[in-house]
Amino acid sequence: RSSWLLLAPLLTPPVPVITAPPCSLCPEGAHRFQWIRNLVPEFGISSSHVKVLSSPAEFYELLKVQIKAAKQRVVMASLYLGTGLLEQELVYCLEETLEKSLQAKGSPDLRVSILLDYTRGSRGRKNSRTMLIPLLQRFPEQVRVSLFHTPNLRGLLRLLIPERFNETIGLQHIKVYLFDDNVILSGANLSDLYFTNRQDRYVLLRDSPEIADFFTELVDAIGNVSLQLQQDDTVQMMEGMVHPYQGDKAAYCEIANRSVMEVINSARTRQELLHAKTFHSSQPGSSLLSQQDSQASGNLKPEPDTWIYPLIQMKPFGIQIDEMVTETLLTEAERDARIYLTTGYFNLTQAYMDLILGTRAEYRILLASPEVNGFFGAKGVAGAIPAAYVYIEHQFYSEVCYLQQQERVQLQEYSRTGWTFHAKGLWLYLAGSDLPCLTLIGSPNFGYRSVHRDLEAQVAIVTENRALQQQLHQEQEQLYLCSGVVSTSTFEQPNRYVKLWVKLVTPLIKNFF
Questions:
Q1: Which of 20, 147, 252, 511 has the most CB atoms around it within 10 Å of its CB?
Q2: Mean of the pLDDT values across residues 161-184?
Q3: CA 239 to chain CA mean position, Å
Q4: 284 falls within a domain
Q5: Which residue is catalytic, options 49, 117, 149, 175?
Q6: Which coarse location class applies to the principal site listed for this UniProt protein (predicted)?
Q7: Are 474 and 367 members of one domain?
């Protein structure tokens, strides 16, 4: 019975489609992407502050080091926190750092804010909540745990849909981990698989206070409209806040929209003022004395050669910035430009598929082979999900062949013994360039869920610096090295057989995974 509940409709009125703004592309290099700052704040930084990580183990070790070194803030947003030994060690690191802060002279400065999804974080008897309650009990003044509950799971739907299946309606899917002024953007969750043998992407932005402030404010804004975990494992809303599934849905979504857009718009205004100030002070007629003062006080920062644009997608709240920017990037990609796009779950929206098939750039799309799909070998209905992805992939490949686009649009399957694949994002190589000047990295999978159901965030990193471009290129190459090109014979293999019932059900449920 529960499998049919996957077909439950999303009980929301359709959100009007927002068309992307007209693009005023500059002709030269990285600066052609400055139109993005019309929508979101633009953070100019030095490329020396950006480090691309390559492995789950490196990601895990960095998390521990950063937690132990934190003095003012630890802010972590994830789908969930796992319950194994590696996750417990992270909790111990937090406990140790909080204890040190408590013992320091004066009032403790360290604040820890954790944002997870309510349904995923509450799954099972031992779960994310039970892992974090000891921290809440021991450090009640310093620790906050917020559990986002989608407003679309309510009423009869909420009563009928069982655990696990209720996660199909909508989730908090953002993954950002920040420690003082250091920010890690990733698609990886806080779970042992993501620390060992589940391949993802990770980037560290060091000494970036403005970016850290932005994501702190974003997580706070979502946290404020989320359920607050209590020391006795109950949850409650902040005083005066509309309840996500008991209160008025339109009122809740409007408050959430206002809160998030306030963060985006105020950061954008701050950055524009900063940009104007920097621009004027760097002009030939600016005061030499003020420049000398800046140098003397050590405030003079290196000229930025890299720009960070946070892209937020929260369709339940009517926020579609990531979708608009992604569609514009795909639309504007010129002939002979190359786009390397990767997703752990190949289930592109119709709009993204149409743009890929109807535009001029070359595409190399990396996706999971069935054996490295996160649902491979799962029990029950979930075990058929890899076959559903094979069916979706086959349909898309057939369309590519029908349009005779096989040379321009190439599918590649990631395959690695003993590993699963969860990497997502894209790299954009301008025509004639052997290195990418833009990458998207974060939580979205480019699928229906990412665009319509879940809360998502990623960043566009645009850089003129060749060394950072080289880092991004090596990251892309390392992932694509573990792949094989998809051809007609791929779908003739025995492990690609898709049962009739899966073919019949997939079109009905593809918007839920």
A1: 147
A2: 96
A3: 29
A4: no
A5: 175
A6: mitochondrion
A7: yes
According to DSSP, the β-strands at 306-314 and 425-429 are: unpaired
pLDDT of the residue at 292 = 52
Residue range(s) defining the domain that contains residue 116: 45-267
Residue 207: active-site member: no
3-state secondary structure 379-406: CHHHHHHHHHHHHHHHHHHHHHHHCCCC
List, for residues 328-349, the tens digit of each pLDDT value.
999 999 889 999 999 999 999 9
pTM of the entire predicted model:
0.91
**Does 352 lie in the same domain as 479?**
yes
CA–CA distance, 210 with 189 (Å, rounded to integer): 24
168 is a domain residue: yes
Q: 3 in the Ramachandran plot: left (φ > 0), alpha (ψ -120 to 50) or beta? A: alpha
pLDDT for the residue 105:
67
The answer on 189 and 84 residing in a single domain is yes
Same domain, 454 and 378: yes
- 3-class SS at 320? strand
10 Å CB burial of residue 174 (0-12, 13-18, 19+) is: buried
Q: One of 49, 149, 173, 473 is an active-site residue; which one?
A: 173
Verify whether residue 173 is a known catalytic residue: yes
Stretch 293-318: mean pLDDT: 81
- Are 225 and 328 part of one and the same domain? no
3-class DSSP state of 266: helix
Closest C-alpha to 252, from 263, 234, 237: 237
Least confident of 100-109, 158-167, 480-489: 100-109
Q: Smallest Cα–Cα separation from 332: which of 36, 17, 41, 38?
A: 36
> Which helix (DSSP H) or strand (DSSP E) does residue 137 occupy?
helix 128-138
* DSSP SS3 for 269: helix
Instruction: Determine which one of 180, 181, 207, 220 is catalytic.
Output: 180
What percent of the chain clears pLDDT 70, i.e. is strictly above it?
A: 88
Count of domains for the chain: 2
Contact 245, 158 (CB under 8 A): yes
Summarize pLDDT for 243-262 with one digit per residue, the tens: 999 999 999 999 999 999 99
- CB burial of residue 54 (10 Å; 0-12, 13-18, 19+): middle
Strands 202-205 and 198-199: unpaired
What length does the chain have? 513
Supply the CATH number for residue 56's domain. 3.30.870.10
CB 460 within 8 A of CB 50: no
Q: Is residue 243 part of a domain?
A: yes
In a domain, 273, yes or no: no
The DSSP-derived string for 148-191 is E--TTS-HHHHHHSPTTGGGGS--B---EEEETTEEEEES--BS
Residues 119, 449: Cα–Cα separation, whole Å: 16
**Per-residue pLDDT reduced to its tens digit, 397-420:** 999 999 999 999 999 999 999 999
pLDDT at position 386 over 70: yes
